[in-house]
Amino acid sequence: MRCAKIIKLKFLYRHELIILLCVLALVSFIITRLPVCNNHDNGEEINPRRASRLDLNDANVDDDEDEDVDNEKLGAGNHGDGEIKIFNDARLKPQHPPTSWKWNSKKVPYVPPYEEIDCLVNDDVTITARKEGNETYIPFSFLQKYFEIDGKLMKSQDGRDDKRFVWHHSTARVYDQNKYTCDGTFMTFDHYHVEQRTKVKYISGVEGVPLSTQWDPKGYFYAIQIAQFGLSHYTKNLTDPAPVVITYEDAEEQDALRKWRRGTTSDAKNNIKIVYDEERASRVVEFKTSEYSVSSKGFTLPLESQSQFVVSFDAMFSSNFSIIFSVEAENVNREIKLIYTNGEDDIEKKGHVILHGLGPVTKWRHITRNLVTDYRKGITLKRKESLKKTKESITRVKSISVIGNGRMDNITLWNYNHMAHFIDAARWLLRNQDEKGGWPVDVERKLDDDMAPIPPGWYSAMAQGQAISTLTRAYRYTKEYKYLQTALQATKLYTIPSSKGGVLAKFVDTYPWYEEYPTTPGSFVLNGFMFSLIGLYDLKCTASAEEGREAARLYDEGINSLKNMLHLYDTGSGSTYDLRHFTLQKTPNLARWGYHSTHIAQLQLLASINSDPIFKSTLDRWIGYTKGIKGKRQKNKGLTHSKEIGDRVKGHNDNIDAGIKTLSPSPFDVHILDVRMSAP
Questions:
Q1: Is the per-residue pLDDT at 293 higher than 70?
Q2: What whole-number distance in Å separates Cα of residue 647 and Cα of residue 32?
Q3: How far is 396 from 394, CA to CA, in rounded Å?
């Protein structure tokens, strides 16, 4: 009996164990069937326990490239000047949330973790925002344009998912600089790409320098752009690795002609040979073709380069000629021809042919062309698309063909040839300086509606300064005194009042200022003035003490003006482009971030050569502005210095006919200017 009870008890324990296991299995089954969210947009099922607040990284943000400094953006300080159209952009509307829960095939209403609310901006317009608890989320696509900030989603390291959002307070880019030397790099010009600018029509085939369309679509030579072209290549020559150079023909090999192929024509008069040229004192290749026709192909030299796209050669032709480069390009299924002729200095595109005029080449000339730049300028000639946004490029240089009667030597391909471009710029400045020592701008310029237009033929202190910086470096590089002599002549305009055809103005009849634009009244553009000072510094460091005495005097006077006036350009959150808010008593002309970063680069240079703390403290503060660090607001304990100046100017409006007024000394020893002040 006792044995039977034990067996029965064991059986009961086993039964309870089975029941327990069944319960555990049921619980496990229920857990696996918890409700999930059925997203009808993409079919994904989302566990509601993991659904949380709106992930702002999912916002769609346009990554528009800021093209040069010519593109205006809606920025802080400008957003109160009218209706903001971005509010109606469909991108500001949040994506539709999942509509239902899925529980054993039965649908129940979905409750999102946030709610859509209206956001009233400046009592003016309304946009859609999202609220989650006590937090409110505004679409970044709105914030980006409203505050002129920059941001975009970044891919993960494996390149598959948008894992983080990168935000910049500004589009300004600040680069480190070493201590400035007069023969070293020029500021941060290694980041300049003058050829790619939309307002550069092309690189002149005759002069080898940019042709500008900044204020005239027909094109003209602009000394500022040409000097920047030269200085950028000079700087890149110091910062880039040594170039890769391949010489395809120098006529020195005994069997040099073996590489050349005759064209389709069978005329016996077509001839190619190696001759000795007395002028060059070297062997050269001489061509003679009876037909001046592209179809004849002349004589062809295979190149087959897939990485060197800058060509240089020496040439002399007695009459008409064509130098033809056959290339392959991205997204083009047929061969492209870049043809250089003795035609006028111009560019033209006909189908898959791009023509560049080199002008007459009846004397020996060294020619350097960037085939990629020439190709891209050609294909964007009639497009609305800017060159910077053009992704098309050359992928292979197949051959060079020559048609005409002439001689060539040193046919070479480079991955870049910076010094050739630099020397082209320096030679243009050498040839085109006028008797006043300047490079006149032959287009009309109107800086402001309340300023008189500047008639063609005006001079710019910025052009004078950057030209001097180019010429002094050319003198140091070539040891040819003519470059230094031209730079010394360029200082004459610094002493001539802008009202009399020079570049000199005076702020409150006290501080000399070298005007980028000789306007009436004065405009006092900051970046142009600092470039003019850098040129004077380069000259006084390069010339002898006697020759550089005038440049040193002009530099010292200009630096003193900058020390006393620099704070007038500080807004507490950025910088101003000029001082028209003083001379015209109107809204400050806030510098775009591109110009603000130029101001920073210039102050970096000046702080490295001048120990005055005004430059270093202003530099640090202005760098902070690019990261959103603003000046502190006073708490009703008096006026800021800028507001004090403004109130004093307003108080003197009744004395406007009295001319310039001098006020009691301020902490910066600044004098206040009557709004009618003009250049002397």
A1: no
A2: 74
A3: 6
Query: Is residue 567 a contact partner of residue 668, using CB atoms and an 8 Å limit?
Result: yes
Q: Which helix (H) or strand (E) holds 144?
A: helix 140-146
Q: Are 288 and 270 in contact (CB under 8 A)?
A: yes
> By the 8 A CB rule, do 464 and 555 touch?
no
CA diameter of the chain: 135
User: Which segment of 90-94, 285-289, 325-329, 547-551 scores lowest on mean pLDDT?
Assistant: 90-94
What tokens were used for 385?
Answer: 């698309």
Distance CA 487, CA 470 (A): 9
Residues paired with residue 228 on neighbouring β-strands, in sequence order? none
pLDDT digits (tens, 9 = 90+) for 117-175: 999 999 999 999 999 988 999 999 899 888 888 888 887 776 667 678 888 888 888 99
Helix axes 526-542, 593-609, angle to 10 degrees: 30
C-alpha 662/C-alpha 96 separation (Å) is 65
Strand-strand pairing, 394-414 and 282-288: antiparallel
Q: Where are the beta strands (DSSP E) in 230-374?
A: 245-249, 261-262, 271-277, 282-288, 299-305, 310-329, 336-341, 347-350, 353-357, 365-370
- 6-27 confidence digits (pLDDT tens): 444 444 456 677 777 777 777 6
Cα–Cα dist 194/422, whole Å: 12
Angle at 65 between CA 59 and CA 69, to 5 degrees: 135
Query: Of 97-106, 189-198, 547-556, which gets the smallest average pLDDT?
Result: 97-106
User: What is residue 298's predicted lDDT score, i.e. its pLDDT?
Assistant: 86
Expressed in angstroms, the distance from the first to the final Cα of the chain is: 131
SS3 478: helix
432 contacts: CB under 8 Å, gap ≥ 6: 221, 223, 439
- Residue bearing tokens 């369309």: 213
Higher pLDDT: 260 or 102? It is 260
pLDDT tops 50 at residue 47: no
Q: Write out pLDDT tens, residues 191-210.
A: 999 999 999 999 999 999 99
Three-state DSSP class for residue 471 = helix
- How far apart are alpha carbons 32 and 35 in whole angstroms? 9
Q: Which of 527, 642, 517 is nearest to 592 (CA)?
A: 527
CA angle 438, 443, 448 (to 5 degrees): 105
Structural tokens at position 583 = 């001379």
- The pLDDT confidence band at residue 631, using thresholds 50, 70 and 90, is confident
Predicted pLDDT of residue 636 = 54
Q: 537: closest CA among 551, 522, 549?
A: 551
Collapse the DSSP code of 11 into the 3-class scheme (helix H, G, I; strand E, B; otherwise coil) and give the result: helix
Residues in Cβ contact with 655 at an 8 Å cutoff, skipping those fewer than 6 apart: 661, 674
280, HSE (Cβ side, Cα atoms, 13 Å): 20
Query: Does residue 559 have a pLDDT over 60?
Result: yes
- Which runs of consecutive H residues, i.e. helices, occur in 248-306? none
**Closest by alpha carbon to 420, among 280, 236, 191?**
236
Q: How far is CA 40 from CA 45, 99, 251, 314, in A?
A: 9, 7, 73, 69
Asked if residue 88 has pLDDT above 80, the reply is no
User: Following CA atoms 258, 263, 265, 271 in sequence, which dihedral angle do they give, to the nearest 10 degrees?
Assistant: -40
Structure tokens at 361: 């080449």
List residues bridging with 513 in a β-sheet.
505
